[in-house]
Amino acid sequence: MIDKNNVPKHVAIIMDGNGRWATxxxxxxxAGHRAGIRRIRQIIKCASELDIKIITFxxxxxxxxxxxxxxxxxxxxxxxxxxxxxxxxxxxxxxxFQTIGRHKPLQPxxxxxxxxxxxLTAKNTxxxxxxxxxYGGRAEIVDAAKQFAQSVYSGEYRPSQLDEKIFSDFLxxxxxxxxxxxxxxxxxxxxxxxxxxxxAYTELYFTEKYWPDFTKGDLIKAVSEYxxxxxxxxxx
Length: 236
Fold this sequence. Notes:
- This protein is of the alpha/beta class.
- The protein is 42% helix and 14% strand.
- The protein has one domain: 3-Layer(aba) Sandwich (Undecaprenyl pyrophosphate synthetase), CATH 3.40.1180.10.
């Protein structure tokens, strides 16, 4: 049973295990990634039903460029198709879409579609879906540090003014609250350079299931486990 008064406001998901899911079935790794992207649609629907306000998917990391070129190309096509095929449906359902991560070296047509999707859905008031695309936690911190340094150079701040709140304002999405719950699939127990600053007090949940097998029931199970925990934030 889910207590609707204690649902995590922001859920972040590391969608791991697509390649292994495909290999176990004698399929190419790219088939696993396609299945994983289809799974996103189902979990978005479930998140809306549970009254989760924000869901962030770790889709492609800054390190993923090191994967085989064929796999990277397939993922870029899949993201472009997702932006083409899914955004209007999200907009129809009052869902806001945004991305976090570096635009370079994403292809210009993907950047263009991201900007169009964010503009189209900007005023929607339902679930916010965040796609972490070409994202790295360390890269985000470095980029924030550069932005703050530039603000010092321009005279907006003095170095002595820097604190955690001001630094947070220079992150990729400062208006988003920090995740309450992080889910990682596939049995791996690490955060893999994802939201390093934002996960300071996030509850972590790991499941053995590969991402293409992660169902509505699994999301409900994760939320149920979250509701059993006591969040102290360093206090007694």
